[in-house]
Specification:
The complex is a heterodimer of chains A (389) and B (177).
Chain A lengths: L2 H36 L10 E4 L2 E4 L6 H11 L10 H18 L15 H6 L4 H10 L1 H11 L3 H32 L4 H7 L10 H17 L11 H4 L9 H26 L14 H23 L5 H32 L3 H27 L12
Antiparallel strand pairs in A: 1-2
Helix pairs in contact in A: 1-11, 1-12, 2-11, 3-5, 3-6, 3-11, 6-7, 7-9, 7-13, 9-11, 9-13, 11-12, 13-14
Chain B lengths: L1 H22 L3 H21 L3 H24 L17 H22 L8 H4 L5 H10 L3 H33 L1
Helix pairs in contact in B: 1-2, 2-3
Classes of the chains: A mainly alpha (389), B mainly alpha (177).
Chain lengths: 389, 177
């Protein structure tokens, strides 16, 4: 056996398996606290560290909550419905966690204890990292379907079908908005995309990059079933959707998988648009790259939590219409604009041209977004009341 | 040594997945066995350093085609997954003969044509340029006409599908209006 290789692989993968699940634990606490503050509540604030067996504890703003939740999940009864397909009922949560964990490898996280020469790091920095990312996150849909089908429950199946329809629709704007960056960099390699944005040359500062980032982020919300696109698990309509029949540790796996998928897709957004590990002081201290990367991921997660507390859930027809009639045309237009902007910059020198291109691209994109919005809205008539007036 | 082990493991996964997909009476189980087969095939492609084909295998077959088949099953009453439904296989005899013929006439001569590389090391196999880049350059430079014609064909098929799906409803609306 090649022990050195195994050591390298462990050095590259174990940090991912440690950092992201612990971030998950903290995020559940942050999410509950933030949502509570948005709704004018206090949120979890009791669970802490017990100091003596007789009382007295360090409550630490309820930071013990994730640990308490984890222990609760582990010891809850595992209930499988009588009519359920036992094998698939067991496999579905596992299958939902595997793709989410797997794609973390493709993020350009440069841990300081790995130098770029090592094989294991190169193995993950595949040339097709971005397309691998999309291919493997797509498998999550299958896990959702599996869960919905195996539970032998109407609500589960409805949730599963909703999830498939939603994920398939939103995958298209997600990929098309990422195409822009791939096209400009000329590489599908995550590390090369990160390098291309070194030194504040982030793509989010370009008009097409900004548009692509917004489209990507919205589609990412839908891909990970986050509010306001959480129709597959809409509590008020279909109980909990595809994981209605799940309890205990299987439910915890679903929960973990969902959050890891959130981290992964935020990580991809950071890689593509927000300069990956770029930030102040990176040249002097290279290990800051990991810190900046994770900090940006945390900020995006914070925005997701904020949106969850702010926006109401969409209707199914609004959801589909938004993906196909708004995001899709806009992301296709964005590809053209990025191409023209890139061409104009390459053929002409000088700041004046780049400023004009920048402003023109922004105006075109804004006008297109407004126009699409109006076209889509035109069919909605003001509501008339038969007996109300 | 490692590559050989990986090959046998992946080949076993693929073959078992394919066999289960064909033999399983529960259609949904069959689809997921088929997906296991696709995943095994993607692994084999990765082993051959054809990472782009591997990823397309996952993206198109395991992702898109799998979901498509599941959607189709959803519209039939096989969705209940009862084993009572028996898939009738009357032509199994002729099917086996055709499969054997394909193997003997097409596959076996092709395999014999390929020169065996003795004592090949992984270093010899690594191509200088990455497969994705080479593929992209080839698609855009020499094969641009082919890809454009294909794109046109696919667009036509897409528009045709939309028209076919909407045809009845559009005429109804005209009648109502």
């Amino acid at each position: 056996m090649n022990w050195e290789l195994i050591g390298d692989i462990l050095l590259a993968t174990v940090p991912l398996l440690v950092i992201f699940p612990s971030m998950f634990a903290l995020t559940t606490w942050v999410e509950r606290k933030a949502l509570a503050r948005i709704q004018n509540r206090i949120g979890p604030n009791k669970v802490g560290v017990p100091l003596t067996p007789y009382g007295g504890k360090l409550s630490l703003f309820g930071l013990g909550q994730p640990a308490a939740d984890g222990i609760k999940m582990l010891f809850k009864e595992n209930i499988v419905p009588t009519g359920a397909d036992r094998l698939f009922h067991l496999l579905a949560p596992i299958l939902s966690l595997i793709p989410a964990m797997l794609v973390l490898c493709f993020l350009p996280l440069e841990f300081p204890w790995l130098n770029g020469e090592q094989n294991s790091v190169k193995a993950f920095m595949l040339d097709g990292a971005v397309i691998f990312f999309f291919a493997i996150t797509g498998l999550n849909t299958l896990a959702v379907f599996m869960a919905g089908w195996a539970s032998r429950n109407k609500y589960s199946l409805l949730g599963g079908m909703r999830a498939i329809a939603q994920m398939v629709s939103y995958e298209i704007p997600l990929v098309l908005s990422a195409v822009v960056v791939v096209m400009i960099v000329g590489s599908l390699n995550a590390a090369e995309i990160a390098e291309a944005q070194a030194g504040w040359n982030w793509y989010v500062f370009q008009p097409w990059g900004l548009a692509a980032f917004v489209i990507f982020f919205i589609a990412a919300l839908a891909e990970t079933n986050r509010s306001p696109f959480d129709l597959p698990e809409a509590e008020s309509e279909i109980i909990a959707g595809y994981f209605t029949e799940y309890s205990g540790f299987k439910f915890a796996l679903f929960f973990l998988g969902e959050y890891i998928a959130m981290f992964a897709i935020s990580g991809l957004a950071v890689t593509l648009f927000l300069g990956a590990g770029g930030g102040p002081g990176v040249e002097a201290l290279p290990w800051l790259k990991v810190i900046w990367f994770l900090a940006k991921v945390c900020i995006l997660i914070g925005v997701m939590i904020w949106l969850r507390g702010t926006l109401p859930r969409l209707r199914v027809d609004q959801l589909m219409g938004f993906a196909w009639k708004f995001l899709l045309p806009l992301s296709i237009l964005n590809i053209f604009i990025a191409g023209f902007a890139w061409h104009a910059k390459n053929t002409n020198e000088g700041t004046a041209v780049s400023v004009i291109v920048w402003v023109a691209a922004l105006i075109i994109l804004y006008a297109a977004a407004k126009g699409l919005d109006r076209v889509n809205r035109a069919k909605v008539k003001p509501r008339t009341y038969q007996y109300g007036e | 040594m490692n590559e050989v082990t990986a090959f046998w493991v992946l080949a076993a996964i693929s073959v078992i997945g394919a066999l289960v997909a064909v033999r399983k009476r529960n259609l949904v189980h069959g689809v997921f066995a088929l997906l296991v087969f696709f995943a095994g095939l993607a692994g084999l492609f990765l082993l051959l350093l054809a990472e782009f084909i591997a990823v397309v295998q996952i993206l198109v077959y395991a992702g898109a085609v799998g979901i498509l088949i599941l959607f189709a099953i959803m519209l039939t009453d096989r969705v209940t997954g009862k084993d009572a439904f028996r898939v009738t296989s009357r032509g199994s005899f002729w099917g086996a003969i055709i499969a054997l013929a394909v193997f003997l006439v097409i596959l076996l001569p092709t395999i014999r044509e390929i020169p065996l590389v003795e004592n090949a090391t992984p270093k010899d196999m690594i191509v200088e340029q990455s497969s994705v880049k080479e593929l992209g350059t080839n698609l855009i430079k020499p094969y641009i006409v082919t890809i454009e014609v294909l794109a046109l064909l696919l667009t036509a098929a897409l528009i045709g599908a939309v028209t076919a799906a909407q045809g009845g409803r559009a005429s109804e609306k005209e009648e109502n209006a």
